[in-house]
Design brief:
- The chain has 232 residues and is mainly alpha-helical.
- Helices cover 68% and strands 0% of the residues.
- The protein contains eight helices and no strands.
Length: 232
């Protein structure tokens, strides 16, 4: 299968997944794609991290996450997108009039690979290593998948952009977690150790993992309600 055929398949799958005739889903997807709509989850994450670690370790985790996002974003938007220069579907002369768009949103010129996919998967994988809680891992991966699907729905990314973003994000999330562990040991910053079944394998309260799951699902509900309130 040559590159031209893969590109044609990418176009077909993207058009199949893009948009709908529902103003309700337009509002939901447009709201879900906004990082600020997940502020409640972000605040809960930092609460759990600082509650379950001493200050030095919590700060180490926080700084690592900030660096992870910064590196993922710069690698994607600052290096790869301008170097590859692949049009977004909404900007591609071949597809731009076939793609459903919402509220005139077309994004920037280039879309390979997806920064949303890379960033969300990087954080999901990093936190999965950090917490080592199966239900949290599954939920975070689903959060990354659902959030990134909005980019295809809105027509600002091809499916291929998203899949590559997922792969690179997973690699970066893993690298940064183990790099943080290495630096922590060199600096003498100890990690949590589980003391009973009330803790995950990395020493986080199971009750706090349940709290995070609750907040994530609650956030989905609140974002959907907000989207509905926008009218459709």
């Amino acid at each position: 299968m040559d590159l031209a055929h893969l590109n044609e398949l990418d176009h077909q799958w993207t058009l199949a997944l893009n948009g709908s005739d529902s103003l309700f889903w337009d509002n939901v997807m447009f709201t879900y794609t906004n990082t600020f709509s997940w502020s409640l989850v972000i605040l809960t994450l930092f609460f759990i991290i600082f509650k379950n670690n001493d200050v030095r370790q919590a700060l180490m985790i926080t700084v690592t996450m900030i660096l992870l996002i910064a590196v993922a974003d710069r690698f994607c938007s600052g290096l790869i997108k301008p170097m590859i220069s692949r049009w977004r579907p909404t900007q591609d002369p071949e597809l731009m009039y076939l793609v459903d768009i919402v509220r005139g949103y077309r994004g920037g010129r280039f879309g390979f690979f997806s920064g949303h996919a890379c960033n969300t998967m990087a954080i999901a994988v990093f936190l999965s290593w950090l917490f080592r809680h199966r239900n949290v891992t599954l939920t975070l991966i689903c959060w990354s998948l659902s959030t990134t699907f909005t980019r295809i729905y809105l027509g600002v990314h091809y499916l291929g952009d998203v899949l590559v973003g997922f792969a690179i994000g997973a690699i970066l999330g893993t690298i940064f977690y183990f790099l943080m562990q290495f630096v922590s040991k060199r600096k003498g910053i100890s990690s949590n150790s589980p003391v009973s079944s009330h803790f995950t394998a990395t020493g986080y309260f199971v009750d706090d993992m349940n709290l995070l799951l609750t907040v994530i699902f609650l956030n989905y509900i609140l974002v959907t309600i907000f989207a509905v309130s926008m009218g459709y």
